[in-house]
Design a protein that fits this description.
The protein folds into two domains: 153 residues, no CATH class; 200 residues, Rossmann fold (3-Layer(aba) Sandwich). Helix content is 46%, strand content 8%. It has a three-stranded parallel sheet with strand order 1-2-3. Helix 4 links the parallel strand 1 and strand 2. Helix 4 packs across helix 13 and helix 15 runs antiparallel to helix 16.
């Protein structure tokens, strides 16, 4: 039995859909804030970082941080979470070449590698980096993926656990206190702004509820054991505290521009884009490593009316790569495109039928976002190209 979800209540979404006056994002993105002029928090932050931040001073702060943690004895002195994509590769290469750090790069394995994703990871490692790959029990991961798709409306929950907690595990295991991520997604893309003006996220704030809404132990009541779920847990708070683990964002110290990261990594780490655009968007160089990426983005479109194109276009508008009219056109062209390339493989992986897939998808549609025509087809009630 597939239960209808109350998405609006679950994510505390406004009842009326409104769009940012500068980009293409709507107020349906969880935790985003619009000011009285109708400008989203991500656009406000983009203006702030472009016009208010002294980047030379921030760069000096990064030098001081590296000087504090650099060991100088040949051992690793910083952990960089990295899938082999443009962002983590950029951070690792910059820390090594410009700041003399010796990164240990860590990757949580995708649900199903794409060929280009694995090629990019291999090329990155060959460009001169030590690397650890975390691969949990595949049977437990499949079960957790199926349950997450059904109960949370996101098949990427196992990956989110691992991406969040594997670097923490390695920090404690190898006694490397410093972890450096790329951008602070909350401030760059619109969300909780409490860390917008801080270089770090406190470990006490870096918890599973913040990232997923459900901790791993939630799944005990759904047939998964402690053994199944052990790889998805973080270390204890006491372990992290004793290790003095710190989480920093490279985007706090240097201006963050995903497209420029792409150009940098094609030259420095052997990164290659897809041969064609990714399903659901117009770009070829982001989120390439997992065959099931498209279903994560598609569920965001179903739950919030915000697909992959909306997110990509919004950030490129903020980075002055495109203007808002072009962004609106791209959203109309590609947002919500169904990820058909690996559809059957996804059904087989989750051990569900097409009928069950559609029931799960429709259970996450909110009536304040979606309407249904007499012929049974769904439609967005307030698409940006019609209401703005």
């Amino acid at each position: 039995m597939i239960s209808k979800q109350n998405v609006q209540t679950l994510y505390n979404l406004p009842g009326q859909v409104k769009y940012c006056k500068k980009c293409t994002i709507s107020n349906q993105r969880p935790r985003i804030i619009f000011n009285t002029e109708g400008i989203c928090s991500a656009c406000q932050f983009a203006d702030y970082k472009r016009n208010k931040i002294d980047w030379e001073s921030r760069n000096e702060e990064l030098k001081d941080l590296c000087n504090l943690h650099r060991r100088g004895n040949g051992s690793h002195d910083v952990i960089v979470p990295c899938s082999g994509g443009k962002d983590g590769s950029y951070v690792a290469h910059k820390l090594r070449e410009e700041f003399g750090m010796n990164p240990l790069c860590v990757t949580w394995a995708p649900l199903r590698y794409t060929e280009i994703g694995r090629q990019n990871l291999d090329a990155f490692i060959k460009s001169g980096f030590s690397h650890l790959l975390g691969t949990p029990n595949p049977m437990a991961t499949r079960k957790l993926t199926q349950l997450s798709f059904k109960h949370l409306g996101d098949p990427f929950q196992p990956f989110i656990y691992g991406q969040t907690n594997f670097p923490l595990q390695i920090s404690v295991k190898y006694n490397i206190p410093l972890i450096v991520y790329g951008e602070n997604g909350e401030v760059e893309y619109g969300g909780d702004m409490k860390n917008a003006f801080k270089p770090t996220r406190k470990i006490s704030d870096h918890n599973l509820h913040y990232f997923s809404g459900k901790p791993p132990e939630y799944w005990y009541d759904h047939g998964l054991s402690k053994t199944d779920l052990f790889p998805f847990f973080p270390p204890s708070y006491e372990e992290l505290k004793n290790n003095k683990t710190e989480i920093h964002f490279f985007g706090y110290y240097q201006y963050w521009d995903p497209q420029e990261n792409y150009y940098y990594c094609t030259e420095k780490t052997g990164f290659k884009p897809n041969s064609e655009r990714s399903e659901g968007t117009y770009s070829k160089y982001a989120s390439l490593d997992d065959k099931f990426d498209g279903f994560h983005f598609y569920l965001a479109y179903i739950k919030f009316g915000i697909g992959r194109t909306t997110s990509d276009a919004s950030h490129e508008i903020r980075d002055s790569k495109i203007d808002r009219e072009e962004g609106k056109y791209l959203v109309k062209m590609y947002d919500g495109e169904f990820p058909k390339l690996y559809y059957q493989e996804f059904l087989d992986y989750c051990n569900i039928s097409e009928e069950e897939f559609n029931l799960i998808i429709d259970s996450w549609r909110s009536p304040h976002i979606w309407g249904k025509k007499p012929d049974g087809k769904w439609f967005l009630k307030s698409p940006i190209w019609e209401v703005d």
